[in-house]
Write a structure and sequence with these properties.
This protein is of the alpha+beta class and 166 residues long. The protein contains five helices and seven strands; from the N terminus they run βαααβββαβαββ. It is 31% helix and 28% strand. A seven-stranded mixed β-sheet has the order 1-2-3-4-5-7-6, sandwiched between helices. α1 packs antiparallel against α2. It starts with 6 loop residues before the first strand and ends with a strand.
């Protein structure tokens, strides 16, 4: 049975992240699923590329200058999203993930709303993100929230780049 408690979104500056807050599990699930979707499934976190292992093992170091938004059901982390500090007026949204058991409850929308507010408060004039072409549900969500496809800043095949003015 899925837990139906209310979910809240909390902001955590990257430099304040701590071990055991559940973010590591969410990031591991995100990266393992992404590698599988890219056709490169790995059995466990130890087989992920180093840059992803570093995020999982030391999110404080990986996101030190960023803000991490965590969706909590009670004290359990059920979703996450990273908002980078603005560079040239733009913040970037990364690592949007919701625990599959909690999907369909608006958590991703809540995280994105909080991310847009965070970016605006930090002085960004726009927010950008990249998403794999096969994540059609995510692309539709981003479009509903005003993001539009833009010229790519990343040369990886099958990656869609999107942006929204604030």
């Amino acid at each position: 049975m899925t837990d139906q408690r209310e979910v809240s979104v909390v902001r955590r500056p990257g430099r304040t992240l701590s071990a055991g807050d559940g973010l590591d599990s969410l990031l591991a699930a995100y990266h393992l699923r992404t590698e599988a979707e890219k056709g490169k499934p790995v059995a466990d976190v130890g087989e992920l590329p180093e840059r992803y292992r570093a995020e999982i093992s030391d999110p404080r170091g990986a996101f030190v200058d960023d803000v991490v938004l965590v969706a909590l059901s009670g004290s359990t982390a059920v979703g996450c999203l990273v908002v980078t500090a603005p560079v040239d007026g733009r913040s970037e949204i990364k690592r949007l993930w919701t625990d599959p058991a909690f999907r369909g409850r608006g958590i991703a929308s809540d995280l994105l709303g909080a991310a847009l507010a965070q970016a605006a408060e930090s002085g960004a004039s726009a927010v950008r993100l990249s998403v794999w072409t096969w994540r059609t549900g995510a692309i539709a969500l981003y479009e509903r929230l005003g993001f539009t496809i833009t010229e790519s800043w990343d040369d990886r095949d099958q990656l869609v780049c999107m942006e929204r003015a604030l």
